User: Which sequence fits this backbone?
């Protein structure tokens, strides 16, 4: 079964750091663009970051310079290192797979999502 | 930056109704436009990709259309399981942008 399972969430003080993990099964993460998407309480979805073509990365302006996405292909796991956390980073963080596109490319859509992990940043 | 605006923000409808949700972009975009359904406490579910392609396992009452700056998601006959929040999302050059969402409520 194709699946993503996030972990690492919790309560953290403003200015602190946290690392989220996303363990994939049923497919190989190096074959897909992998992203993190977040959702603040009662709000809509906000894309955070993508990793593609092995080590290339891109970030939303709201997290650029504070968050780092990475992968460990031996563990088939995607990570999100979050530093200098702010109250506005409080959200459910989802790991999401960009659907297969037949190569090193994006399909433009997320077909597999994890269950989410909750980050609460206290000020 | 291209922004995505959905309308309406909330929609009240009855079972059996035909429902249309619109997503407008501030600039002409390619057809890398997707639609998702999200229920409370759950992860989003992909419904439509590339503007009009039905994702695997999604009922045929869902359809997507549009091009340029205006795209629509249509539910031909609303079912009880369809009451949820719907998001559009575009992709361009490694950036993914979501619309603000449309909540479909029971009338």
Assistant:
């Amino acid at each position: 079964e194709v699946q993503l399972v996030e972990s690492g969430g919790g309560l953290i003080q403003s200015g602190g750091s946290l690392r989220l993990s996303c363990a994939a099964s049923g497919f190989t993460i190096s074959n897909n663009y992998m992203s993190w998407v977040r959702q603040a309480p009662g709000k809509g979805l906000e894309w955070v970051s993508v990793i593609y073509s092995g080590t290339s990365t891109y970030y939303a302006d709201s997290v650029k310079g504070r968050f780092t996405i990475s992968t460990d292909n031996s563990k088939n796991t995607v990570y999100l290192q979050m530093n200098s956390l702010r109250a506005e980073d409080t959200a459910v963080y989802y790991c999401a797979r960009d659907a297969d596109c037949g190569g090193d490319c994006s399909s433009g859509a997320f077909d597999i999502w994890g269950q989410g992990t909750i980050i609460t940043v206290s000020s | 930056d291209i922004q995505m605006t959905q309308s309406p923000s909330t929609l009240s409808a009855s079972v059996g109704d035909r429902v249309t949700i619109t997503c407008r972009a501030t600039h002409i975009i390619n057809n890398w436009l997707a639609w998702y359904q999200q229920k409370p406490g759950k992860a989003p579910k992909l419904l439509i990709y590339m503007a009009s392609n039905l994702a695997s396992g999604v009922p045929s009452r869902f359809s997507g259309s549009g091009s340029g700056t205006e795209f629509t998601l249509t539910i031909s006959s609303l079912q009880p399981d369809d009451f949820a929040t719907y998001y559009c999302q575009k992709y361009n050059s490694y950036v993914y942008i979501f619309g603000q969402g449309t909540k479909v409520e029971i009338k």
The mean pLDDT of chain A is 97. Chain A has no helices and eleven strands. The CA atoms of residues 23 and 43 of chain A lie 26 Å apart.
